[in-house]
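Quick one: structure tokens for this chain, please?
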Amino acid sequence: MDSGRTPAGLLRLWPFVVPPVALAGAAAGWGRDLPGWGLALAGLLLAGAVLGAVHHAETVAHTVGEPFGTLVLAVSVTLIEVGLIITMMISGGSEADSLARDTVFAAVMITCNGVVGAALLVGSLRHGTAVFNAEGAGGLLATTLTLATLSLVLPSYTSSRRGPEFTGPQLAFAAVASLLLYVVFVLVQTVRHREQFVPVRRYGGPLPGFWELAEEEGEGRPPARVAHDAMPGDYEPEHHGPRPTPRQAWVGLGLLLLSLLAVVGLAKLVSPSLKSGVQSLGLPSAVVGVVIALLVLAPETITAVRAARRDEVQTSLNLAYGSAVASIGLTIPVIAAASIWLDGKLLLGLSPTHTVLLALTAVVGVLTVFSGRATLLQAGVHLVIFAGFVFLAFNP
């Protein structure tokens, strides 16, 4: 058995060392123009912070079980993402008017197409067919599309004010409706119908972790959910080892938050270089928001793909759609409140191109989740839509 002083033991300490070091690096470089070597070091620390976030997110998820684990990661990332948006809106000029819209829409497209497509691709390649709970995935998708339409599509079609803006009362309604719908979503996912959001077996129902949780609360075993292509005995869940202790869980949660703060802080450090590079290449300013969203959502993407490798595609969908729901349901209310004291306009309405992409995402998403299983074809369709979004961000 390796001790902490052996090379293998020291290697195991990296998830505990990298997050505070990365956060310290972000704090040291905050507000400064970094030289080339500084940007390279920030990039290395950013990669380490992303991997650290993934490690500690899985620790927390293994402790509290599904769907609470994915909810913790999604909410943590979103809250810090909101802080990043507010910070950049305060320091930005006229380009910051559309920053919230660009960032939220990028998060929706990345999660609903990029993360979903990658998870379905890995799940179908490794297990033939990716299986999940159609009820839970359908509810997540419906909530995402409703929030996106209310907050990002309607501003371009209301008649009270010209342009992609809400009036004050309209913005207040969108903010309150988004927050209330997010609260209902959390209650349904974690209390009322959480059996719809746990990974399904190919034969015999949810994973044993949920059975144990239900039995502890005296609710009995939930009804079995069998995939359409299920055969007896064809599923063996990957063992995660012993459940972490409460102390390990709290340490993991704290280091998860440190890692996410470091990811956002380091992304903020490299964003000026990205912005100047984008401007020198003559690319749209929205490209910066897309790149930063990709960096911030990297921990969730890696966690979702690793869950799909374990044949827990429902966990991947919880993380993908849940992040989209949190991104809109929490960001819009905070931005609406901040707009009271922030200068400038708040442009939320999507362009016609982005509206078409969102509509295509809605149609394809419904066709993907309604059957409770997906193949390489569905994965490929989602990834092509994601590639189209990225391409059109660079070449609108």
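The first strand starts at residue 130 and ends at 131.
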